[in-house]
Design goal:
This protein is mostly helical. It has six helices and no strands. It folds into two domains: about 50 residues, no CATH class; about 60 residues, no CATH class.
Length: about 130
């Protein structure tokens, strides 16, 4: 892994020590860290990632993607899939074989546990059309 220059270390040190206090961008002195990341990535292998101690993959996956119908709750999309549309298009059926029903309930249980673990209900339980039709 490449070593950072003393100047780059001085720049990076305050960036790594944010603790858990609320982030207020107006009080920050913004610094270009491109050279630090360029230098750090030179020693990286495929599949490795740079992260801060406060980084959680859950936060990255829960980030809002604007104008993406699945991620942006404010995006008004008339093309949202409903139970009726899914049945009409043949994506799902109302007559579910027992083995498929077991698989659906297994998936719903996993989504429920993910929701209890802190994931959003929209991205877990509410993504099942069968659950919408209860």
């Amino acid at each position: 892994m490449p070593t950072l220059t003393e100047e780059d270390q001085q720049i990076a040190e305050p960036l790594l020590d944010h603790g858990t206090e609320a982030f207020d961008p107006s009080t920050c002195n913004w610094v270009d860290v491109t050279s630090i990341f360029d230098q750090a990535t030179q020693g990286m292998k495929v599949g490795e990632m740079i992260e801060s101690p406060q980084f959680r993959l859950f936060d990255a996956m829960s980030a809002i993607e604007i104008m993406d119908p699945k991620m942006d709750s404010g995006f008004n999309n008339s093309e949202d899939m409903t139970m009726e549309k899914a049945v009409e298009s043949g994506i799902i059926t109302r007559n579910i074989p027992h083995e498929d029903l077991v698989a659906i309930w297994d998936q719903l249980l996993m989504y429920y546990l993910l929701w209890l673990d802190g994931h959003t209900i929209v991205q877990t339980c509410f993504c099942c059309l069968y659950l919408h039709d209860l």
